[in-house]
Each structure stands twice: as structure tokens, then as C-alpha cells.
């Protein structure tokens, strides 16, 4: 199993200081395709959650020939900025508070200064029953100590809300994604039974998977970070998907 860092995390670095620090979903997906090409991997089971889940969904949707099967936590995560501009009821908007924070320069500065405090708060909110210790958090939080991390995070959230432009070279891909394409590859979607982060109901996205499909609720107080909180269940889903269930 290969577990890469997304751009702006861990040991990733840009070769040029002039390169735009882009957090678009299509850019993250193409990074994964480039990694597969470099490793001479033509086709693979692609699995992920949150940002990684979105990149996995994009690859499955746009490059199904590279995706043997998909494991996606919280289902269909393709972002459509025009849809994201639509207001939600106040209670639902409250759950996305950090997106509005990041839309301001105060939010950018605050995330730069307090990124570990911010991440720990999100962990606690999104996985309310996960009793992680400081050592567990610190191992993951080290990935945020990257010179491009803040710029990419801020751009990603602003782009999703239509508040920041993407790069022209990704326009055609984003136009295709804006149509919410159906994913045809065999897919297993997972959801923790105690996910405190905003997430769609499984019934709302089942129709977005037209191939062999299975949805599973992972029990035991599992929150948003399912791969880390329930690694065995996540790994078993990958193995199961590899055999087409």
C-alpha cells in the first residue's frame, strides 16, 4: 500500500518558487496520476478520506482506466463551486465555520499562527468519540509543517466557495467535474458511526456509483478520520475492493 502526502503536506516541495500554490481538486488528482506514472503503476485501487477521498473520487470519475476500484470515506466528494455558493440553513452553515474563517485574511493569519491548535480542535469536533493522545496527534500534525501548507489550504477552501480563481489549465477538467459525473468503477463507500464533521447522507450519493457498489457503516464510535481511527476496517475495504467484493 502506498500512502502519499498531498501537495502542501509533509515532505512535498515545489520545484519553483514561482509556481502557483493551487489547492484545486483536479490538481491533487493529477498529482496522484503523476505519482502512479513515476512508479509505473497503470491501475490501482484508490482509497481515501476528506481531501484524499476527493482526489480519489476525481480520478475514478475522470480517469477510470487508472482506477481498478475505489474506497471512498463519506461517499461522493467531488466539489462543485457553483453549488457551494448556495446558502444552507443556519445550523448547517455553522458546521462549516472554518470555511468562512479561511475566506478572510484574519483566517489566513490565524491558521498560519495556530495551525496545530486549529487541527486539534477540528479532530475533536469531527471525531468526538476518538480518544487520541498527544503523541498520535503530533505524528500527524508534523505534516502541517510545510512551507506551502497554509497557501494551499487557504486556496483550496476559497476556490471551493468560488472566492479564488483556479488555473486555466484545469478548466476543462473542472467543467467536467461540475457536471457531477457518475463513477463507474467498483466502489465501497464507508462512514463512521460517530462522524461529527459535515457529511452527506449515504442515500444522497448512492446513485452516483453505477458499477458494483457497497456502502458500510463502521461501528464503534468512529469519527471523520476513519482510516486512522479504524485502520483494520479501512484496510479490509481496500482488500475487498481489490477483489471486486
Structure characterization notes:
It is built from twelve helices and four strands, in the order H-E-H-E-H-H-H-H-H-H-H-E-H-E-H-H. Strands 1-2-3-4 form a four-stranded parallel sheet, sandwiched between helices. Helix 10 (202-205) links the parallel strand 3 (187-192) and strand 4. It has helices at 25-38, 50-62, 81-84, 90-95, 97-102, 105-126, 134-141, 149-160, 171-177, 202-205, 226-229, 231-242, and strands at residues 44-48, 67-73, 187-192, 213-218. It is an alpha/beta fold. The longest helix is centred in the middle third of the chain and has 22 residues, at 105-126.
Average pLDDT, rounded to a whole number, is 97
Secondary structure class reads: alpha/beta
* Approximate shape: globular
Q: Would you list the SSEs in sequence order as H and E? A: HEHEHHHHHHHEHEHH
| Share in helix | 40-55%
Q: What is the count of DSSP helices, taking H or I runs of 4+ residues?
A: 12
How many strand elements? 4
Largest sheet: 4 strands, parallel
- C-alpha end-to-end distance: 18 Å
Given as residue ranges, the uncertain stretches (5+ residues, pLDDT < 50) are none
**Order of strands across the biggest sheet?**
1-2-3-4
Strand content: 5-15%
Cα-atom radius of gyration: 17 Å
